[in-house]
Q: What sequence folds into this?
């Protein structure tokens, strides 16, 4: 009887998933920021809000890159 | 003919079965969204939208937790309005600190896990405050706005007022979330949590620490409700 192979994921796939999450935030950010800017109590401009948000998220993208560089994969 | 093998982590490796990921992530996102909705409905002085993030960050890893955090705020922004999306960054920070913190051994003892939750609260607040101040002008309609107003009335500037109110709310929230997540992690099958550096105790000690942690968080929240409300 053949043993059923269990598919596994490691650190590399985990970081990849995190980067996908960051990408999804970037994807929805422009339209959401415009909706926020349209709210009555918001005084800021959409461009300024988008710039600030992208700046913060870029830090996480850099962190994800560093995590990929320093992650110890089991395949190595 | 194929035989089903018990799904367990490979010994000596950090690899986890894909079934854990597929089963845990949607549940964690749902837990976050339900927690957030309950919090909004009851106007509690907490957020309760990071319990699932903490569970996944501890069990699967920090970047899987980051995915849960990002997806939670994206989905929640469709349900309860666009205000939540910029705070996805806070959910990601929480996941990274909980995930790496536990992997670096800060979750080995109950007191160090308590301190880890405080660290999460501080770093999440440091991420949230610029979003509150520069995007929303200091107010989003959350309970903490009342405390911010109180600090402003005392003569503090906006940045200090928002940080002061947010750190108190965040402390209560992250202590409760961290210990509820720990209770959930302890309830998961042993094969799933094998190799995770969590406090080793049995029976009543475990229950007392988890309940004690949640009670401390609730006490902070109650004090805040009396101050702000």
A:
């Amino acid at each position: 009887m053949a043993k059923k192979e269990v598919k596994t994921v490691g650190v590399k796939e985990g970081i990849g998933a995190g980067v996908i999450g960051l990408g999804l935030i970037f994807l929805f950010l422009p339209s959401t920021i415009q909706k926020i800017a349209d709210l009555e109590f918001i005084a800021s401009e959409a461009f300024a809000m988008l710039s600030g948000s992208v700046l913060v998220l870029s830090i996480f993208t850099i962190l994800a890159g560093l995590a990929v560089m320093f992650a110890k994969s089991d395949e190595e | 003919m194929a035989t089903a093998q018990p799904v367990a982590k490979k010994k000596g490796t950090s690899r986890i079965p894909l079934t854990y990921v597929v089963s845990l992530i949607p549940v964690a996102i749902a837990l976050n969204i339900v927690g957030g909705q309950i919090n909004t409905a009851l106007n509690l002085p907490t957020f309760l939208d990071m319990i699932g993030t903490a569970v996944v960050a501890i069990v699967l890893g920090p970047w899987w937790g980051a995915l849960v955090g990002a997806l939670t705020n994206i989905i929640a922004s469709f349900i309860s309005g666009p205000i939540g999306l910029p705070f996805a960054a806070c959910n990601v920070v929480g996941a990274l600190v909980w995930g790496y913190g536990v992997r670096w051994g800060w979750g080995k003892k109950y007191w160090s896990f308590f301190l880890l939750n405080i660290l999460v609260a501080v770093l999440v607040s440091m991420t949230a405050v610029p979003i509150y101040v520069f995007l929303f002008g200091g107010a989003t309609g959350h309970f903490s706005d009342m405390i911010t107003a109180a600090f402003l009335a005392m003569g503090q500037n906006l940045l200090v007022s928002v940080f002061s109110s947010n750190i108190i709310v965040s402390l209560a929230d992250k202590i409760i979330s961290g210990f509820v997540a720990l209770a959930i992690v302890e309830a998961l099958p042993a094969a799933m949590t094998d190799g995770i550096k969590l406090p080793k105790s049995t029976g009543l000690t475990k229950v007392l620490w988890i309940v004690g942690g949640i009670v401390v968080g609730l006490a902070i929240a109650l004090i805040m409700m009396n101050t702000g409300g």
Q: What stands out?
A: The two ends of chain B are 65 Å apart (CA to CA). Chain B touches chain A through 46 residues (CB under 8 Å).
